[in-house]
Amino acid sequence: MDMTRLRGIGVSPGIAMGEVLLAKRVVFTSRKEIIADDQVPDEIKRLHQALDRTRADLARVKESVREKMGPDSSLIFEAHLLILEDPTLVGGLEAVIRDEKARAEWALSKANARYEQLFESLTDDYFRQRKSDVSDVLKRVYRNLETKREKEKAPQKQHILVAHELLPSEAALRLSKELTLGVVLDVGGGTSHTAILARSLGIPAVLGLRDVTRQVREGELIIVDGTDGEVIIDPPPAVRREFQAKKEKYENYGRELQKTAKLKSETLDRVRFIPQANIELPEEVDLALSMGAEGIGLFRSEFIYLRRESLPTEEDHFEIYARLARSAHPHPVTIRTLDIGGEKSLPQLNIEKEPNPALGLRAVRFSLRNRDLFRIQLRAILRASAGKNVRILVPMVTEVDEILEVKDIFEDVKKELRRKGEAFDEKIPFGIMIEVPAAAALADVMLKEVDYVSIGTNDLIQYYLAVDRSNEFVSYLFKPFHPAVIRLIRSVIQAARKAEKDVIVCGEMAADTPSAIVLLGFGLRTFSMNPIFIPRIKKALRSVECRTAEKIAEETLKLRSAQEIEEYVTEEILLRHPQVFLTGQPVEAAPKK
Ligand code: PEP
Ligand code: MG
Questions:
Q1: Which residue from 6, 384, 47 is spatially nearest to 207, judged by alpha carbons?
Q2: Atom of ligand 1 nearest to the CA of 455
Q3: Model-level pTM?
Q4: How far apart are CA 8 and CA 188, in angstroms?
Q5: For 37-144, which CATH class?
Q6: How many A from CA of 341 to the centre of ligand 1?
Q7: How far apart are CA 302 and CA 280, in angstroms?
Q8: Which atom of ligand 1 is nearest to the CA of 462?
Q9: Which one of the listed residues 164, 317, 506, 577 is annotated catalytic?
Q10: Alpha-carbon distance 190 to 12, whole Å?
């Protein structure tokens, strides 16, 4: 077979080469096998035996995931167990067997098709996730109908895992740091469960390849380039050598970056900067610290809600925040209050669909409308602040009155805790996100009411340029270097510096090398980003003089377009500090922290 090159989405960087291990795919039957009247009770019994076996499987998976990854990660299997107990689901399966005189396989296949159709018609992300949960459970039951089923043996040797889709339970069980060299899937994207897991285990992964499972054979040699989102099937020797060299270069670069993680965060002319991490799961703290994060600049707390069937209690919140604070100590942890609404809806509440969700009841607007929920979260954040390394961050503020209202509630919750004798940090820093252009324009006034501000460039750019951040048709207009954008960001940084208050940039812009250098030049010192980008940005900022960055940043203000700015910044950096873009070079010895 000739070499095939496929393009997908690189969701976990690195290069791997190895033999394909094809995960078996459960294909629901399309054949309706009819049984005799008197076989119906036995068939229903057969279904229940499969349900029992599935229950036992899930309890085992739950336990093993809890041991490997902590109690929070195992919650999803609790949800799966609940799906199994759903009387409508089980009753429906029995009814098909009884009424249609059909095999259990047919009943499961029919149920799956019905759920797929139902979930397909909903656009909400959470519900799409629920579809894969229900499907995960139904597939397990289907597999368990075969009593003599050939157990898929646990792999003994290193391999590249190729699958159509990895359901959450499969991803947690199948990905192993030692044996899984790479992961390749037909479906999935950057925020899927598999992607998050692959990144945190450091396994290169390319997802969204559509039909890679049809193009490879078990045992075939395959290359996974998670950095460039490419997969090469059956590469000839010359291509293998090329990728081996790329892999070595990448790994050298990785080792060099890892060394950078331990070096001091300061520019060539000794200006101190602080790299921090944006995370979504408490399990990510260790990875973030090993990458050189000096604290968590953004913890997106909505994931606490999205991982549960019911609303989280104060204790649920507290456990997670306390664990975060403990594992990052003495570094700070910035907990952002719920940023729900927009595309992310709360599954536990029946939130009405809004005609224009990005401009609707989102983030702090939602919290102020649902004060009981808000107070629960605030109480938990405050209680977790007793170790004095927690900061609170309020998303999507538009006007000063919102800040005052939130502060009122916050003070009230503090009083309540004092009354109860609960310990918390009396000086817990209170910050807001600057994500709405109006807040940016009013930053100097808002700064008087808060301890720090965090610029969320993802939303700020979306709202300022009127470009939906997730709409691929207009993504060419989403430009961090748009002259209007950099002027606005500069004005916020300057207002914060004038007010002698901290300012962070926590949008994707902080993770882009030329942008980070311009932000440094504007006076930014704290950069928060996805942990995997920290070493690269740290290395870049350590390779420039702040003085030069200031000159470059000032010059950008004279330019008229994003393209001019981008070209100018890149050329200037290449001219003055070419090592910013160099890979595979030894890191200069710099003073240890
Ligand atoms: C942002 O808007 O830049 C941000 C960091 O928040 P999120 O991406 O979670 O909306
Ligand atoms: Mg945002």
A1: 6
A2: 3
A3: 0.71
A4: 10
A5: mainly alpha
A6: 13
A7: 8
A8: 2
A9: 506
A10: 8
546 is an active site residue: no
Domain chopping of the chain, boundaries: 4-24+152-255, 37-144, 273-428, 434-583
Task: Determine the Cα–Cα distance for residues 587 and 579; give it in Å rounded to an integer.
Answer: 10
Q: Which CATH architecture has domain 434-583?
A: Alpha-Beta Barrel (3.20)
Index of the ligand 1 atom closest to the CA of residue 278:
5
113 φψ region: left (φ > 0), alpha (ψ -120 to 50), beta (else): alpha
| Residues 465 and 479: beta-carbon distance below 8 Å | yes
- Starting at the edge strand found earlier in the chain, the sheet holding 9-12 runs 4-7, 230-233, 221-225, 15-22, 159-163, 180-185, 205-207, 9-12
> 3-state class of 458 per DSSP?
helix
User: Which amino acid belongs to residue 57?
Assistant: D
Q: Which residues pair with 302 in a beta bridge?
A: none
Helix (H) or strand (E) holding 580: none
* Region of residue 95 (phi > 0: left; psi between -120 and 50: alpha; otherwise: beta): alpha
Residue type, 67: E
- Enter the tokens of residue 474: 């207009």
With beta carbons less than 8 A apart as the criterion, state whether 557 and 482 touch: no
Any idea which fold 273-428 has? TIM Barrel (3.20.20)
In short, whether 506's Cβ falls inside 6 Å of ligand 1 is yes
H or E element, residue 181? strand 180-185
Q: Is the peptide bond before 330 cis (omega within 30 degrees of 0)?
A: yes
Equal fold, 4-24+152-255 vs 37-144: no
Helix (H, G, I), strand (E, B) or coil at 163: strand
CB 333 within 8 A of CB 389: yes
What does the pLDDT profile of the chain (593 residues) look like in tens digits?
A: 578 999 998 888 899 999 999 987 777 877 888 899 999 999 999 999 999 999 988 888 788 777 766 676 677 788 888 888 888 889 999 999 999 999 999 999 999 888 877 776 665 555 655 667 788 889 889 888 876 555 556 778 999 999 998 876 677 678 888 899 999 999 877 656 688 778 877 899 999 898 999 999 999 999 999 988 999 999 999 999 999 999 998 888 778 777 888 899 999 999 999 999 998 878 789 889 989 999 999 999 987 886 666 889 999 999 999 999 999 999 999 999 999 876 566 766 767 778 888 899 999 999 999 999 999 999 999 999 999 999 999 999 999 999 999 999 999 999 999 999 999 999 999 999 999 999 999 999 999 999 999 999 999 999 999 998 777 688 889 999 999 999 999 999 999 999 999 999 998 899 999 999 999 999 999 999 988 889 989 999 999 999 999 999 999 999 999 999 999 999 999 999 988 886 544 333 333 33
CATH code of the domain occupying 4-24+152-255:
3.50.30.10
Structure tokens at 195: 């992607």
User: How far is the centre of ligand 1, averaged over its atoms, from the C-alpha of 396 (Å)?
Assistant: 9
In our burial notation (b when 16+ CB lie closer than 10 A, e otherwise), range 322-353 reads bbbbebbeebbbbbbbbbbbbebbbbeeebee
